[in-house]
Write a structure and sequence with these properties.
The structure is a homotrimer. Chain A is an alpha/beta fold. Chain A contains 6 helices and 38 strands. The radius of gyration of chain A is 27 Å and the shape is flat. Chains A and C meet through strand 20, strand 21, strand 36, strand 37 and helix 5 of A and strand 3, helix 3, strand 38, helix 4 and helix 5 of C. Strand 38 of chain B pairs antiparallel with strand 37 of chain C, so a sheet runs across the interface.
């Protein structure tokens, strides 16, 4: 059982606490309006402020300004950023499997692979020639790590991840189940009868602290490498084509697609299902809303969007008709203007 | 070889048949216009009615109104709903592998896992600590079922499915190959230098008779659970983010994406590639056409749409230009109205 | 170490070379502006022509017209199609794993499966009853090939591919990691309480030289087969529903989705995230730009598009408002026209 004292070791708390407060037990995390005795909660957004007084949580993470409004029987931990503090502390309550630092006897590890001591290799994992796995890394069950790929220290691959030959991941990364890193880029030369595949000779090179969701695909470069800089976070089912470069700290939501050779700057974000044309350059700090159809690069940061939101289909049908009539509508407006001008 | 008599055991037939008719052999299913002797077909939609008289099928499922129009040499089975009857009977002709109720010797099953008798565990499947597998369930080859996950009775997982720790599936579900259930939700708190991942402490909780396609991803909840109610059907490559709640009987087509904390009602449907913003509530019986960009919840059922359908690119280019000019077009209209008003 | 002479064996070079030129060593491929001594490059597009004079490559593939402009110290290989020649030669520089023609001892191959001599079966692969694997084929680690599926000669499956029962792939195909071929189509009949699944009795039938990316899903047909003709190329995360027919040489980019029973002609292409409604017929040589929303078939080839490209969100918000006002805008225009007409 954790106590408030254990939380203090993980986050910087700005108010002083009594020994009694430090000894309060905490066994779980919950939302402000649902937390019960023994639970930790947090007030991260002003819009939930009115829930604070009524919380039944034993401990709450708050900004200094909200300390006074916390209930008397709830230990208020004053922190600079309650959401960040919650994020840090959440890991204390994680009940997921803990890597045991062992290599499964059923893992097939090429004799030339170099697995650091303390790295965990899951059941039936396959590690090819010259593969390197860093200290404390975790290779999940059924992962396939092809020849000469390198997995950095403390990097975790969940079950059923493919890392193709020569690709490299930095330290402290996470790759979720089903993701394929280093698939062949979609490069073909047309022939008289079909297509000639182009060997994809580049790698995927991934920085540190990159997190990649489930069932994503990240293609290796055609000649040079596909690059994902440090601190990038990527959601599920995202497609990153060959030669793409993703700048540091950029966040890509679910089902985003980025076509070949596009460069995303640092600190960018893309909402779910946004799509990026190939061979464009997106400036640092450019943000795109969901389903954005990005056909041109940006030269400065900012928020970009496209699409007409969904509405009742009968209204939508009229709208489509009206849009389709725009050419004639404008001709009518032209004619009217001309007529008026002549009349004057 | 099946006969008409075997079909009668599966569906309620409303007309009476002679012994001769009951003995007609049926070896396959086919469409009305392609069926041959020995084949079963069905008339489900009035638009195919004119094909009925010419079908060469040996047996046809029809509504009462269509019985008279069936060919003389074809046994007409009158049913309330021919399409549903076809659906039920289709399984008689399935040639897929039949689960043998055995546990593969190469499966790695933790001693603390509880696998019901008669459940099938495929080759190289990995079952973690405390995993429960119900009666008659089928775990495909290469599935990875993490610690404390629970698979209900008669639920089938095809090859290469991941079920992460503590997630639960009800009875009579189907999960197709490559799908990941219980991946981490995309939850991060921004820091000065990047992102702090938030441990995803919730589970995925799936009801009964839920069917999920291939290569989908369903994220576990951040604090509470991601929930998919009973009788939901989900196509391939669908992304369901953390804390989402999908109501009973809802149908999601291929590549649909639902962002975090969104609640879909019961009896809803979404066409392919439709995308739902996070934190919205969709009313029961709301239906969305393909590629719909759903940025707001709905308060009542109905059909919702967005998007201008594709057209010849040269016309599309003009249309985009016209839409882009709307601001000035409307200013011109304003000016014209003002001018006319002054003239009057 | 390769020399120019080795390249001549792979592509038809139209100019004559000296023995000295033929002996020039080539160890890698690089872009025109980055190539160094010992590297091969190519000039495929006129827009890079000005880089030719300054290239430091040892060898360059050019059209006849560009031969004279090549640097003196660089061997110019004159070819009919430099891009195609580059594509062919790229494979000389591929450093990926080479199939060893062996069957892994950990592969589980049903005794009734017929694996041609020289085919490679990777670690932990599972081959069901009656599976056929052709000469020189490569089945990657962790692939699951269900009963009676057939893999043609020289066809390569990367790691972790599923091929469901009775599906067939032709010769010289490539299927990348994580892809599922033969998943059940999304076919259900509504019932009073939910859905009755329809057994998907068709197969997936794939021609020769078809290349399919990573984490795709290709559903088996409901009654007849889903068919992909020869020389089709498919990028990552593409969804092809049941009963779809894709004509020869068609190219589908990442995250494209094609709904059930749609027929794509030959020589078509679809940009990333394009979506096709079910039950439509697309004419040969129809091309669709990315994110196209294809709700109707085409009767002739050509380029088709939809969508308004992304723009700064503040402008986009105005545009959405203007589009939403179109109904009233047109009513105002009607009124104005009427008024003018009466005035005249």
């Amino acid at each position: 059982m954790l106590t408030v004292n254990d939380l203090l070791a993980q986050v910087q708390v700005l108010n002083s606490l009594t020994d009694l407060e430090k000894s309060v037990p905490v066994f779980a995390l919950a939302a402000l309006d649902k937390a019960q005795t023994g639970q930790l909660t947090f007030l991260a957004s002003p819009k939930y402020r009115r829930q604070l007084a009524d919380t039944c949580a034993s401990v709450v993470l708050v900004k200094a300004a909200d300390q006074a409004a916390s209930p008397v029987n709830c230990v208020a931990l004053v922190v600079a950023d309650p959401y960040l503090a919650y994020a840090r502390l959440s890991h204390l309550f994680d009940t997921g499997p803990i890597a045991d630092g062992n290599q499964a006897v059923t893992a097939q590890i090429d004799p030339s692979a170099r697995v650091a001591q303390g790295a965990t290799i899951g059941a039936y994992a396959v590690l090819g020639k010259g593969v390197k796995v860093g200290q404390g890394a975790v290779i999940g069950a059924h992962c396939v790590i092809d020849d000469f790929a390198a997995i950095g220290a403390q990097t975790r691959l969940q079950a059923r991840v493919t890392v193709a030959h020569h690709c490299t991941l930095g330290d402290h990364c996470l790759v979720q189940s089903g993701t394929v890193i280093g698939s062949n880029g979609f490069g073909y030369a047309p022939t008289a009868t079909g297509w000639q595949a182009i060997a994809q000779l580049g790698r995927v090179v991934i920085g540190d602290r990159v997190e990649i969701g489930a069932n994503c695909t990240i293609d290796r470069g055609a000649i040079e490498d596909t690059r994902i800089e440090s601190d990038v976070i990527i959601d599920n089912l995202v497609h990153i084509a060959h030669n793409v470069h993703i700048g540091a700290r950029t966040a890509l939501a679910g089902q985003v697609g980025i076509a070949g050779s596009t460069r995303m700057g640092a600190g960018c974000s893309a909402g779910g299902q946004a799509g990026f044309t190939g061979h464009i350059a997106v400036a640092d700090n450019s943000h795109f809303t969901g389903q954005a159809m990005v056909t041109k690069g940006t030269t400065e940061g900012g928020l970009y969007s496209s699409g007409i939101p969904a509405q009742a289909s009968k209204d939508w049908r009229k709208l489509v008709a009206r849009v389709r009539q725009l050419e004639t509508t404008m001709a009518r407006l032209d004619a009217l203007e001309k007529l008026i001008k002549e009349t004057e």
